[in-house]
Amino acid sequence: MAAHAHRLDGIGSTIFAEMSALAARTGAVNLGQGFPDTDGPPAMLEAAVAALRGGRNQYPPGHGTPELVDAVVAHQRRHYGLELDRSQVVATTGATEAIAGALLGLVDPGDEVVVLEPYYDSYVAMIQIAGGVRRPVTLRAPDFRLDLDELAAAITERTRLILLNTPHNPTGAVLTRAELEGVAALAMEHDLVVVADEVYEHLTFGVEHVPLATLPGMFERTVTISSAGKSFSVTGWKIGWASGPAELVAAVEGAKNWLSFASGAPLQPAVALALNEHDEFHERLAADLRAQRDLLCSGLAELGMTVYRPDGTYFATTDVSAFGYDDGRAFCLALPERAGVVAIPSQVFYDDTEEGRHLVRWAFCKRPQVIEEGLARLAAVPLEA
Question: CA 20 to 30 Å from 319, out of 2, 197, 256, 309?
Fold first, then answer.
């Protein structure tokens, strides 16, 4: 008897679960998985407590609590000039469920999905579960820019949608307005839907984040995804949302209704408060992350790694080929026992494994003293194979 359905072939547990378990077992400093070690705005946390104690513990509306939906509408208007109504927003169990809902709701078996690689690993899993065919376009070191000619070449008559991520995990690249205008031109030329994962929208360092939906002709064909986890340092709350034209949002909701239906009843109004009243939080968070990025990147460079300093997100990428390992995975598996530090091998995010073979992703969404401890441990041992 088969242990699982074939739709799950090759997509078992995530690399994050594997490496975080290794960190816990060895007592290593976890510079791998992207979760912060400080909490979000105190008023948001207190609002969640008040909602818990106030009886908001039963199913919320599947579409999202009115406060949260209205707060997302106001956020999109205030930050980007996008005018939405409630039918154009749906709450989800984190951005991960929004991605799942978009792919399950918009992709038929055999449809091709163009995706930037390296990619967040849930993209691969959900394209496969939806029966789609992945068509990667590679962002290459050192600057991880999008080659629009390669993007155009990846589009065929079977392409259904482009799955875009900016600011980009794991490279930290932030797509420029010119790159996004190129994406928009191709989407309109080929009548494609774009699913834009913009969860790091507020976490950029001196560069502009341009939501794809703000470009001429793109709102009508773009599902925009974001979440409270990254913007407000509550990754465990799993409160996300998708927004866009009503018919595309309805497709996301039609799928996600059969995944979770609804979740996070007392957390949704707390996130609404944060969206409405705490823009300054992500401004401070971005400034803190920029300093933590510089601390980590400078320290890794001093250890002899080639460092690609990111323009956004939680993550920096390094090339570790100078240390003599066959690949980044071997380096990362040796690191906890040898140095007491965990990082993530980037090659697991690539179809083009040669391009990612010696790349390693490091998370800097940690307190400076944690980063300093990790760097001190790395400096105290030989890193060569």
Answer: 197
